[in-house]
Amino acid sequence: MSETGVMMGMATFPSAVVAREIATILVTEGHAVCCNLIPGVESIYRWKGNVESAAEVIGVFKFRRDAEASLRERLLGLHPYEVAEWICWPVAEGSPAYLDWVKGCGV
User: Fold this and answer.
1) Residue 61 near residue 35, CB atoms below 8 Å
2) CB 31, CB 63: distance < 8 Å
3) For the chain, what is the radius of gyration of the CA atoms?
4) pTM (two decimals)
5) Given its phi and psi angles, is residue 40 left (phi above 0), alpha (psi -120 to 50 degrees) or beta?
6) Please, what is the Cα angle at 1 between 32 and 94, to 5 degrees?
7) Which domains does the chain carry?
8) Would you place residue 3 in the very low, low, confident or very high pLDDT band (cuts 50, 70, 90)?
9) How far apart are CA 2 and CA 10, in angstroms?
10) Beta-strand (E) ranges in 30-79?
């Protein structure tokens, strides 16, 4: 797997309003360069010994590898969930122009 310096991350949110607000803050502050919001997700999960379900919105973030720690810290600080989801992974390959754009965006 090659190293591009670009990462993707995923978080779930309780509503489109909350997702949009947090994503806008994270992009505005330069922690991420982009966030795609995917509404209409139903999550089924185990919580405190029970199986629960909830409507959620997924946020897919794109960011530079060196921004992951600040993005995670800020996201978790803004997030309303007691245990917020944050999963990220390196981007192995992609369009050179897109990867250059991600790496070139910084505040």
Assistant:
1) yes
2) yes
3) 14
4) 0.93
5) left
6) 50
7) 6-104 (3.30.70.120)
8) confident
9) 21
10) 34-47, 50-64
Mean pLDDT to the nearest integer, 92-98: 94
55's tokens:
């409507």
Token pair recorded at residue 96: 């050179």
Distances (CA, A) of 53 to 14, 38, 42, 56: 11, 17, 7, 9
| pLDDT at site 1 | 44
Does residue 23 sit in helix, strand or coil? helix
Each residue's pLDDT tens digit, 27-86: 999 999 999 999 999 999 999 999 999 999 999 999 999 999 999 999 999 999 999 999
Identify residue 39 by its one-letter amino acid code. Answer: P
Q: Tokens for 50?
A: 């029970």
The pLDDT of 88-92, averaged and rounded, is: 96
Task: Give the pair of three-digit tokens for residue 22.
Answer: 């947090």
